[in-house]
Amino acid sequence: MDRAAPLSHLPRRLRLVTAIGALLALLGTYLVSTTDRADAAPVANVIRVAEFPADCTYSHRLPDDPIVFPGLPGASHMHSFFGSTVTNGNTTLPDLVKSTSTCNPAVDVSSYWVPTLYRDNVPVEPAIATFYYLGEGVRSDVVANTQPLPQGLRLVAGNAKATGPNDSIARWSCLHAGQVPPSKDFVNCPAGTMLESYLDFPQCWNGRDLDSPDHKSHLAYPVNQACPSTHPVHVPKLRQVLRYPVSGDPSHFRLASGPGYTMHGDFFNAWPTAEMARRVQDCIRPVIKCGHDGRPI
Amino acid sequence: MRAHVALLTAVVLVAGCGTGSPGAAPPTAVPPTAAPVAATPSNASSAGAFSPTDIAWLQLTAAMTQRLLPVLDLVPTRTTDPTWRRLAVEVRASNRADLTRSRQLLGEAGAPTTNPHEGHDMPGMVTADELAALRSASGKTFHRLLAAHLRAYLTQTTRVATAEQKSGANPATTALATTVITTNQTHLNNLP
């Protein structure tokens, strides 16, 4: 389970893995048979959406980024951190694995961070940050072959250097005010509603690297509902949804990285391997909406 | 050392996939079993490998020193004060040298000269709006704005170079960090 375990422990680990593997095989057989039954007689009361979530509250702020500026505390613009409570400029996977988390489920000790939002130069933190893990945007046979996100994966989505809406994938909208059209820059939300930010991470992995020099190109977005041959491994799509308790005139808002279209997200995966694998098997591949515990809702 | 952790993680990861997958899942596409590659960009030429910290610091230094150039270029057009003019010339000289050296080392490391994550608004970097304000300022206002920007730049470059000195791996890069700290602290002391 602990991937950073010394290699000398490998034999014992392998026995454990084999045992777990056998258990999973049994579970897999059970699942396949229940799924078959569900297909034969569609009475299953599961929701047919491939999804499991982590809901995380704000943890802390630091001008640090252990993916982009590793070992260089203070080098970055201000970031707001969610999930692991220990992340700073020097954080590595073992630090995360043994940390506590602000997420529900608490087993998700991954670290998620975004540029801090300011209203009139006062920091505003999301009331809640939801990280959805999804099987969507690709063909159903690709979803059925989804692999777990590897522990230790580091990934950046969005464009912190965007100079305008055209080189941005940011999306801003209003919670409970669908009449306001979404935009790549901040939107003017009616009083009593909340400003929302959506950001989708890429879901096709090259199957090899936990990071890349630009922290992006070891993953790719799907093409024609499938993963490109350069990035053949389909993994869950991470969708970051932030809900800020602010509304009104967007001219009061800025991100630590600049205008709304510079929204980006950093993800350092520290899910326990077995917890991630179970959710991929029980929720994503069979297309079942799961709750925080990774069980069908 | 960081590279070792990454490599070990990748090795264990692939080992874990290989042993775990037979029982793990119904319809499994096995990930390609290519050799694990750590995140560290490879380099053969330089004595002492470049760590991710070295690369990130060099990219940041290249970006920060370059971003200051238009500010320094403005000085002779906006003020006749000899103290400010002299200081600008001195900062420009060390700034150019740091920019050239950081690009050189990035070339040796085979890394891109820009960091994909550095936003418009980074600590110690003058934004487009701030540069516009400087262009239209003169006299005491110009001196006050210039002093604030130079102080922010020199303080931030010193802070980050100190982190590189402590966490960096490549000797030529940590040596550049030491140079940056020494010269920029001198500039800070010379600020009127």
UniProtKB/TrEMBL annotation, chain A:
<feature type="domain" description="DUF1996">
    <location>
        <begin position="65"/>
        <end position="271"/>
    </location>
</feature>
<dbReference type="InterPro" id="IPR018535">
    <property type="entry name" value="DUF1996"/>
</dbReference>
<protein>
    <recommendedName>
        <fullName>DUF1996 domain-containing protein</fullName>
    </recommendedName>
</protein>
<dbReference type="Pfam" id="PF09362">
    <property type="entry name" value="DUF1996"/>
</dbReference>
TrEMBL record, chain B:
<dbReference type="InterPro" id="IPR005183">
    <property type="entry name" value="DUF305_CopM-like"/>
</dbReference>
<feature type="region of interest" description="Disordered">
    <location>
        <begin position="22"/>
        <end position="47"/>
    </location>
</feature>
<protein>
    <recommendedName>
        <fullName>DUF305 domain-containing protein</fullName>
    </recommendedName>
</protein>
<dbReference type="Pfam" id="PF03713">
    <property type="entry name" value="DUF305"/>
</dbReference>
<feature type="domain" description="DUF305">
    <location>
        <begin position="72"/>
        <end position="190"/>
    </location>
</feature>
<feature type="compositionally biased region" description="Pro residues">
    <location>
        <begin position="24"/>
        <end position="34"/>
    </location>
</feature>
<feature type="compositionally biased region" description="Low complexity">
    <location>
        <begin position="35"/>
        <end position="47"/>
    </location>
</feature>
<feature type="signal peptide">
    <location>
        <begin position="1"/>
        <end position="24"/>
    </location>
</feature>
<keyword id="KW-0732">Signal</keyword>
<dbReference type="InterPro" id="IPR012347">
    <property type="entry name" value="Ferritin-like"/>
</dbReference>
